[in-house]
Amino acid sequence: MNIHPSLDFKKISFVAKGVLVGALVGIMVSLFRYTINVLLAYTRGAYTIMRSNSLWIIAWVFLTLFVAFIVSKLIRDEPHIKGAGIRNVESQLYGITNIRWFSIFWRKLIGASLALGSGLALGRGGPSIHLGGVIGKGVNTFLKGNRSQENILLSSGVSAGLAAAFSAPLTGVMFILEEVHHKFSGVLLLTAFTSSIVANFVALRIFGIEPALSLGAAVRFPVDQYLHLVILGSLLAIIGRLYQEALIYLPELYKKLPFPSYYHGFIPFLLVIPIGLYLPNMLGGGIAIIDIIDSTRLSTQLLFGILLFRFVFSLVSYSSGLPGGIFFPVLCIGALVGALYGNLALTYSSIDTIYYQNFIMYAMGGLMTAVIKAPLTSIILIAEITGTESQLMPLSLVCLCTYVVANFLGSKSLYERLMDNATKQLDARPNGEKVTISLIVEADQFFDGLAYQDLTFPEEAELLEIVRYKDTFEPDETTVLKANDELIIQCDSGLVPSLRTYLLRHN
Q: Rounded to an integer, what distance in angstroms lies between the CA atom of residue 288 and that of residue 88?
């Protein structure tokens, strides 16, 4: 049998691996989503009963303490399940840590399900990404792949996790390219795209084809009113920076508490009880709130009060270290800001009331851009989860304005800041294990135009290869680095954190 000579079996093998990773991630993330929905429904029902019979509150307090104890024990035994987990995945990709994939997988699945199912202001996006990443690493371990293959499968798992969490396959691919790797790779793109499509197909079979958020029908925004979008985007950049600073600062306050960090989750678990009793619509990541403000135009004062409440509640929930993400809480805060701006715009300008929902939608993408500094991912996410691709132009303008103003404010990606804080706390010392990391040379930065003979790296790191367009070569004395070159750098794995800090500072 003759086999066509143009077939690239390496790419075909990665497609097959992408299908495997996507199917597994799709099943597990769908199970995660289903579990959250069931637990949250029972939680809401329990609070309804307690409002009728207050004696049940005592039993619920003990049950909540028991759940908090279980989650704290899971965190104590595996600290890497804390938070969204995106930083943990990135540290594995950068060679800073070597995660135990199965230990994280089952503990994250249980811990995040309990935390989100209890009604805390946490999102499913981060945990889904984390679960997808560790499943990708587990598949590579089973297939006995090398480190390079592990990074590709782990990345494709991340992409599939985000796709399954929001039924947004393109967002999953863009997140990998824009936020995690900051580069374009043919094999990486092919594998991640395959995994995202397969995972999304599995999620659609379970949850149906409806968008993750059912917003009202947004009409086409008039061009002569685009000044509103510029103002809204600028405002979101400021709010996003404040939210970031609070997320970075609040964990330091938690550290001052007189008990171990894995018990910090008891605080939001106990605080959520009065919220469930008196403000049941405030439970959860924020989908219910978005539905309310989209269907009912609330007063400006009420919207401002809800915004402050959700701002604080999400900070307290996430900063405690409980397993959970911030995607939906950020979308909820953005929607509230959009509704507030919409109220003010309708009151003090000539814009028509039919554009109220538009502000809500655009603000969600803008605040997401301000927090994670990934505008393309934010734009595609909003378009996919709302099913309103016709709004791409005004949505893009808001995200662009947010991104530009955020740069003027000196904002970085939240995940990058969390990674920087984590690497500063690591004890950098050589351990004898050599790893390779990659760096894309940014235009008009330190490495752009630098001659190889003038290049020096700290920590005895060595430049092994340069990937330029489709060519890979070893540098020599005549080599000059160019923008968009991918540098393959080898160093001791124990010194990766300090090397990464140096590279980020110069690039």
A: 29
Statement to judge: residues 239 and 190 lie in one domain: no
| 57-67 per-residue burial string, b: 16 or more CB within 10 A, e: under 16 | beebeeebeeb
The domain total for the chain is: 3
Residue 1 lies in a domain: no
DSSP 85: S
Instruction: Please tell me whether residues 327 and 248 are part of one structural domain.
Output: yes
Q: Do both 248 and 393 map to the same domain?
A: yes
Q: Which of 52, 87, 20, 24 is nearest to 321 (CA)?
A: 87
From the CB of residue 431, how many other CB atoms can be counted at a distance below 10 Å?
Answer: 9
463 beta partners:
489
What strands lie across the sheet with 486-492, from one edge to the other?
434-440, 486-492, 462-468, 471-473
Check which CATH number belongs to the domain holding 159 and give it: 1.10.3080.10
Measured N-to-C along each axis, helices 147-166 and 86-93 cross at an angle, to the nearest 10 degrees, of 160
The string of pLDDT tens digits covering residues 326-339 is: 989 999 999 999 99
Residue 468: left (phi > 0), alpha (psi -120 to 50), or beta? beta
Residues 6+ positions from 27 with CB-CB distance below 8 Å: 202
Q: 448 and 277 in contact (C-beta within 8 Å)?
A: no
Amino acid at 305: G
Q: Which residues of 199-235 are buried (b: 16+ CB within 10 A; e: fewer)?
A: bbbbbbeeeeeeebbebbebeebeeebeebbbebbbb
Query: Based on C-alpha coordinates, what's the Rg of the chain?
Result: 23
| 71 or 481, greater pLDDT | 71
pTM of the model as a whole: 0.87
Q: Is the dihedral of CA 476, 480, 483, 489 positive or negative?
A: positive
* Per-residue pLDDT, 184: 63
CA distances from 24 to 164, 168, 196, 303, 371 (A): 11, 17, 11, 41, 30
Average pLDDT for 269-289: 92
Report pLDDT for 1. 44
State which amino acid sits at residue 120. Answer: L
d(CA 61, CA 58) in angstroms, rounded, equals 5
Residue span of the structural domain in which 486 resides = 427-506
